[in-house]
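Dear H.,

Thanks for agreeing to be a second pair of eyes. The structure we're designing against is below in token form, covering all 202 positions.
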């Protein structure tokens, strides 16, 4: 469940946060495929590049995930960064002058966060009501995947009946920035599993 949640956050929710406005008119299932393609493609190639440079670790992975994601979020959605920075400067100036107290500032910030959370929740609920059948099918698919790749994988297949050990050997070797420990095969989803293992400590 932890791995599934981490995978969903990185390959679906993060791309959705960036591109949801651009893809708002498209069917949920199509948007899901676009998000998961973008997320997987980015993670695979990021890990591959950092592995080739021998600088892959939790800090570089997070740095080259969050910074480009933040830049993309601003550019794609045309967020008013300058306006936000001006507001922050004004608040900081007022605090230093003593014309506004920390309690007033915290109240204003909490009110803004509440409004933002309410707006997000209302948007999610509206999207669910508009495409309830698609959401139900998608949720059912996720539960099925949890079962297939969860305990069922252990009870049905097990470690001794498949090539899981050698795949784990290749993935674990990537922790030492050795992506080609036995040829050129460890690429693709090996990179995704390595990423989730390193970044989330699973």
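And this is the sequence the design step returned. I haven't edited it by hand at all.
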């Amino acid at each position: 469940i932890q791995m599934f949640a981490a995978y969903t956050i990185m390959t679906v929710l993060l791309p959705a946060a960036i591109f949801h406005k651009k893809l708002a008119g498209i069917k949920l299932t199509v948007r899901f495929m676009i998000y998961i393609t973008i997320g997987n493609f980015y993670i695979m190639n990021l890990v591959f590049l950092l592995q080739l440079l021998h600088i892959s670790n939790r800090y570089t992975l997070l740095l080259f995930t969050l910074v480009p994601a933040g830049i993309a979020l601003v550019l794609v959605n045309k967020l008013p960064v300058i306006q936000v920075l001006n507001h922050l400067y004004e608040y900081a100036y007022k605090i230093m002058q003593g014309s506004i107290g920390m309690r007033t500032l915290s109240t204003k910030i909490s009110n803004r966060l509440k409004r933002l959370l309410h707006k997000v929740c209302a948007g999610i609920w509206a999207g669910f009501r508009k495409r309830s059948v698609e959401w139900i099918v998608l949720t059912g698919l996720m539960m099925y995947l949890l079962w297939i790749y969860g305990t069922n994988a252990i009870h049905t297949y097990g470690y001794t009946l498949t090539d899981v050990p050698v795949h784990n050997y290749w993935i674990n070797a990537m922790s030492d920035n050795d992506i080609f420990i036995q040829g050129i095969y460890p690429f693709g989803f090996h990179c995704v599993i390595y990423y989730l293992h390193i970044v989330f400590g699973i």
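Two observations from my side: The CA atoms of residues 94 and 100 lie 6 Å apart. The two ends are 11 Å apart (CA to CA).

Warmly,
E.
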